[in-house]
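[[Per-residue structure]]
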Amino acid sequence: THSATYPVHPAALAEHGPAFVQPGRLVSNGAFRLVDWQPRSSITLERNAYYHSADDVILERVVFYPIEDENTEFQRFRLGDLHWTDQVPNSQFDWLARNLPEALSVSPWFGTYFLGFNLTREPFRDNLALRQALNLAIDRDILTGKVTRFGEIPSFNLVPEGLPDYPPPLPEEAGWSQAEREESARERYAHAGYGENNPLEVELRYNTSENHRRIAVAIAAMWKQVLGVRTRLVNEEFRVFLQNRQLKRRTEIFRAGWIGDYQDAFTFLELFHSTHPRNDSGYDNPRYDRLLRQISNERIPARRRNLMVEAERMLLADQVVLPVYTYVTKRLVQPVLKGWAPNVMDSHPSQQMFFLRARTPESESESESEKEKEKEKEKEKENSRSDVAAQRNSDQDESLESGTMTEAAGDETQRG
């Protein structure tokens, strides 16, 4: 379920207004209920006894820690304070891959890092060959293998791979060698009216970030080496950057990215409808708009899929964007935490998680003691259910363990 569709309790909202989200006021229908919220410190949830499948929820409590500094988060994970992190410091990635591979999770994410062209201004408005030349001159393997270096997947498509029943329309150049791409890039660059005596001078704009800077520097160097393009790099604070992208008055080429809101190709394709507020390229193609309307109205899945493939193929043929790579998620997960599984939407419901430990005489004794304590607590709590987690899903080698999961909750920084 996408967060935009979560229900809001009308009576609680009417009575408390914006404060309805506070502990004791928030009415939820999920597996957990909010019991404590310390701004910038912690968010504590406890199992919701009224959840329709409460007996299937094993964890008793989940605590989220909003940690802004990724190195602090990393240290707390190593100390055992956290079971799951929201990010991994790039500076520690190689060390983790060597020393804690069982805790490091790197998996494809439903998002694409790309460059956009401003199609409302010269030099790109009516020059497809020039846009194609810049696309072909980029060595994505070098970018992901030498510059970003954290498992990103080179891509020639806008829609990330991994969608069930969506065959991505790979452009022809995806099957070429890099030498072939560069040869074709030089031919198209010349066809566009540029060359050694008339080099393209262009601006590449990005929001302030060391990672974005390194990528921009590398791309500018590739354009210079292959085509002789002179690139001016401009970095801006994120809000200013977004404003300039949307206004389309200053931008020429700009960094962009999109993480899918839901698991469907349309969440990417709709961005380039002529009236979409995130159409920062200014792409205006009536045929494309008609395709999107057909997709929205089509009820037969196979036909809808074919229309979406056709729409993406049109975007790529028009070289509206310059895809660079598919994002990956980088997380640290304690091996004792089970029920956590990588997926393209990076969705990890706590209700599916539990702790798994080997049975030993000591753990059996601890388990019995914990059960007694739980019984005492249950007697004191109205509207609570008896603890059934330790009673089920056990065999002679392993047992499920309920308890408290601690997770770092970082900020989303890659969207847009």
